[in-house]
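TASK: fixed-backbone design
INPUT:
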């Protein structure tokens, strides 16, 4: 990424990993975070950005360091215990346009080694917490004071038996099982022939059901470690919960220790949350 001395550029950083939060930083530079997932934020300064899977963060970076080459680096944050993850570091380079290209001049051709940043430890939850707690809206939002619907949704991992036609590398859960995720002990099954919108607008039956539970099927110590194994294998289905247009909905999202505690980014397509 080229930059001039004194120039401020906007980085739109996207975590395109499947299931791994990431730390992202640039050596000797700070970010001013101004937005996340297409929503403006009250600007705040940080030297590390934390990105959930699929999350986008907009951050300003200023060329206020001596002209040189600086590594931009990212690596995993392991939020779940005893779950395999890629413990590698990926890099790119932030290069000042006025930086010398080589040691001893261009004729010798020995490239100057970029400066490497210090990344948080793979299990540095304190850094993650500080970053998340910095998210604030630009202005106070007026929220509904009366509710039409109240949903309580538990979120957790799960273990499904490995399908017979799957290779072992696709089933890296405990004892050769396959990791899955669930809400209220239901794991979403993607329709194979029609999209949900197609099925809804064209009244196509058999694609989904409208019996997604408004609360977990059983009460338990959600964050404890002594959880019944009966909850490890969730139901699988294409279940929806119907809401009336214009209804005021409160959603309580409760993480659980099913299999292991995990960091779960939540996105509701086309909407912003009032938190």
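OUTPUT:
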């Amino acid at each position: 990424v080229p930059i001039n001395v004194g120039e401020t550029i906007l980085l739109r950083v996207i975590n395109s990993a499947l299931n791994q939060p990431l730390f992202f930083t640039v050596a000797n530079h700070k970010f001013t975070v101004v937005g996340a997932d297409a929503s403006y934020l009250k600007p705040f300064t940080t030297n590390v950005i934390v990105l959930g899977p699929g999350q986008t963060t907009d951050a300003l970076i200023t060329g206020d360091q001596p002209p040189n080459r600086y590594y931009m680096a990212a690596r995993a944050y392991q939020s779940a215990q005893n779950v395999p993850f890629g413990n590698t570091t990926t890099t790119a380079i932030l290069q000042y346009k006025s930086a010398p290209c080589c040691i001893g001049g261009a004729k010798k051709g020995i490239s100057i080694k970029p400066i490497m940043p210090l990344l948080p430890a793979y299990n540095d939850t304190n850094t993650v917490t500080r970053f998340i707690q910095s998210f604030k809206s630009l202005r106070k939002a007026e929220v509904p004071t009366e509710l039409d619907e109240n949903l309580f949704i538990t979120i957790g991992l799960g273990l499904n038996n490995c399908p017979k036609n799957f290779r072992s590398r696709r089933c890296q859960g405990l004892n050769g099982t396959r990791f899955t995720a669930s809400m209220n002990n239901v794991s979403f099954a993607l329709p194979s022939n029609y999209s949900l919108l197609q099925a809804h607008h064209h009244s196509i039956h058999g694609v989904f059901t409208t019996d997604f539970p408004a609360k977990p099927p059983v009460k338990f110590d959600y964050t404890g470690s002594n959880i019944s194994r009966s909850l490890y294998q969730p139901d699988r289905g294409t279940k929806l919960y119907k809401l009336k247009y214009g209804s005021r909905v409160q959603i309580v999202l409760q993480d659980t220790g099913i299999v292991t505690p995990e960091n779960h980014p939540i996105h509701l397509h086309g909407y912003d949350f009032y938190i």
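COMMENT: The domain at 149-255 is CATH 2.60.40.420 (Immunoglobulin-like).
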